[in-house]
Backbone:
């Protein structure tokens, strides 16, 4: 007898394989991020490390501008069009994304040249910003094509190997006592390598040619469709980085380095913990059509996520001093107390992420935009009051308030949408 997975539903087997590779890639990225952070924190010291973290924060605020024509628009278009039209779809999306990315990069460089940021931060950001030329135009477009086939393995393998190579190069530059501004270019090199690998893979699957072409109608469609989702994502990333943006204007870069060290570990913990919930979301939320069953699944997901986050936060709280010392060294002992409080943010973050699945399931783009606008406004108001009084702890209060505001919108929408 053949295995049911092979004869019954090959799509399920493909999806499960994709999930395994996604999990491996996420674990690799988290491990590499922690290793690199530890290397750079010890090498640069709190002040320069704070500037490095601030440069990364600025990039993560600027980069969403290039996310025009997101996967929620591009993937369904690829699926709906016949294979002969794939070249036109990808080519039109590439032109749009590359145009926006070039403009974003030039404006970023112009801002740096005009002295809009600390010279060392600017030198770091100059290299980091080049990643925008490769992430969305090349990696994002080809990854959308892979997603349309439920086959992300090539992109995930490329990401894992380049991440490990980047960690090795960071170690090499540290051993060579390289300038702080040199490290940003490694991130640009990583993005270029992934983009090149995916282009080669795509060409091999299409007879050795790229075959992309520009279609004016598709270009206009991509430029207008998904704008609300795009704005919502920009607001979301502004909210997630607002603590460091506002804190940088109130404390020294050394203090910002301590706060950023704690938050980077915390963000990796949240990403790891949420991965489980996001992995099972398609089966428990997206594919469920019966309202009573969806409600039951949501209650289970909320309970599971809350339990996981509370248990993990309790362990990390207890081990905070040991973890900070092992990863960042004795110069970052002050980050331990911030980390103890920060890990509890995973509870509202996890609850919000589960509620957000319903918003995405029903494509409620205006709810998504309104939610992150509210979270951004609430966090800004709380930060403006709390940061001058409590410094980094005030920034954590702002994040908590923003997460609670976003979760409240989710709960209101769930109650409204599933009231039957």
Residues:
């Amino acid at each position: 007898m053949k295995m049911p997975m092979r004869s019954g539903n090959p799509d399920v087997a493909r999806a499960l394989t994709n999930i395994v590779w996604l999990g491996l890639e996420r674990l690799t990225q988290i491990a590499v991020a922690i290793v690199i952070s530890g290397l750079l924190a010890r090498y640069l010291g709190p002040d320069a490390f704070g500037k490095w973290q601030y440069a990364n924060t600025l990039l993560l605020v600027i980069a969403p501008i290039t996310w025009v024509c997101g996967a929620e628009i591009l993937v369904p278009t690829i699926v709906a069009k016949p294979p002969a039209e794939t070249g036109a779809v990808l080519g039109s999306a590439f032109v749009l994304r590359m145009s926006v990315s070039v403009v974003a990069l030039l404006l970023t460089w112009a801002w740096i040249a005009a002295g809009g940021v600390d010279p060392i931060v600017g030198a770091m950001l100059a290299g980091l910003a080049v990643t925008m030329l490769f992430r969305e135009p090349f990696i994002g477009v080809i990854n959308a094509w892979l997603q349309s086939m439920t086959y992300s393995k090539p992109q995930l393998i490329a990401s894992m190997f380049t991440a490990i190579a980047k960690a090795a190069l960071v170690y090499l530059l540290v051993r060579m006592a390289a300038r702080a501004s040199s490290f940003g270019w490694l991130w640009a090199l990583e993005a270029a390598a992934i983009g090149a690998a995916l282009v080669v893979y795509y060409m091999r699957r299409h007879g050795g040619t790229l075959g992309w072409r520009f279609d004016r109608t598709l270009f206009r469609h991509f430029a207008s469709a998904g704008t609300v989702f795009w704005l919502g994502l920009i607001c979301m990333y502004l909210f997630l980085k607002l603590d460091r943006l506002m804190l940088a204007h109130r404390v020294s870069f050394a203090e910002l380095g301590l706060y950023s060290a704690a938050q980077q570990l915390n963000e990796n913990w949240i990403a790891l913990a949420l991965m489980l919930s996001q992995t099972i979301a398609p089966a428990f939320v997206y594919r469920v059509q019966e309202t009573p069953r969806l409600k039951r699944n949501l209650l289970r997901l909320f309970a599971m996520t809350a339990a996981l986050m509370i248990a993990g936060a309790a362990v990390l709280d207890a081990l905070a001093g040991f973890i900070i010392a092992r990863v960042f060294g004795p110069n970052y002992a002050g980050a331990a107390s911030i980390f103890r409080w920060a890990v509890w943010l995973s509870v509202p973050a996890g609850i919000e992420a589960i509620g957000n699945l319903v918003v995405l399931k029903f494509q409620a783009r205006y709810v998504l935009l309104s939610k992150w606008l509210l979270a951004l406004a609430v966090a800004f108001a709380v930060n403006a009051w709390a940061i001058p009084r409590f410094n980094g702890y005030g920034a954590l209060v702002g994040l908590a308030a923003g997460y609670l505001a976003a979760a409240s919108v989710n709960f209101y929408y769930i109650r409204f949408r599933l009231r039957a």
In short: The CA atoms of residues 401 and 408 lie 11 Å apart. The two ends are 44 Å apart (CA to CA). Residues 227-420 form one domain. Residues 1-7 have pLDDT under 50 and may be disordered.
